[in-house]
Amino acid sequence: GQNIDQPTEMTATEGAIVQINCTYQTSGFNGLFWYQQHAGEAPTFLSYNVLDGLEEKGRFSSFLSRSKGYSYLLLKELQMKDSASYLCAFYNQGGKLIFGQGTELSVKP
Amino acid sequence: GAGVSQSPSNKVTEKGKDVELRCDPISGHTALYWYRQSLGQGLEFLIYFQGNSAPDKSGLPSDRFSAERTGGSVSTLTIQRTQQEDSAVYLCASSLSGRWETQYFGPGTRLLVL
């Protein structure tokens, strides 16, 4: 089968670092995505990993380990505007983008 | 256009009525997707278009749901005889030339069936 799992919610402090984990199971894998979704808005693309390792993009980094079926999104120097839902998703063998339920991140002052 | 647009942004309807939701993909994007997002749930795939054809309709929940795409651009998702369980946010996304690519989402249509 195929499934994807991420924590439901997390809380962090402004200026801190937070890591949001995502584990997945699939018979075929063709890349892992992270999206950010503010309440009432569209998901916006953050990162894409298809090979193992860390991809850094400003304050956001994403890591992938295909052998472990594991990814994380790392957010540094947290700002209040980073409060949002973070969605992990992978393309399965059939070309369908499978989403996790999202991690609701609350950034506190 | 600059991004994916959807209309209407909000729709309230009565149970049993038909609704049409519209999606305008990013100009030049040939692949288009519809998803449904219910409260507290992840995004649920509905249908995928490549050009005007739909090679994957596997996510449509019932025969009350249908979608079409004309001119390789605008798509319409139609829900007939709406039920209360159809209440959700319907999101459209597009990608440049097909599957395996980054999908860019529209703002969604919030549907409430009373």
| Average residue-wise pLDDT of chain B | 94
Structural class of chain A: mainly beta
Q: List how many beta strands of chain A DSSP finds.
A: 11
List segments of chain A where confidence is low: pLDDT < 50 over at least 5 consecutive residues. none
Give an overview in words.
The complex is a heterodimer of chains A (109) and B (114). Chain A has 109 residues and is mostly beta strands. Chain A is built from no helices and 11 strands. In chain A, strands 2, 4, 5, 9, 10 and 11 form a 6-stranded mixed sheet that branches. In chain A, strands 1-3-8-7-6 form a 5-stranded antiparallel sheet, with no helix packed on it. Chain B has strands at 5-7, 10-13, 19-24, 31-37, 43-50, 53-56, 65-69, 75-79, 88-95, 104-105, 109-113. The chains are: A mainly beta (109), B mainly beta (114). Chains A and B meet through strand 5, strand 9 and strand 10 of A and strand 5 and strand 10 of B.
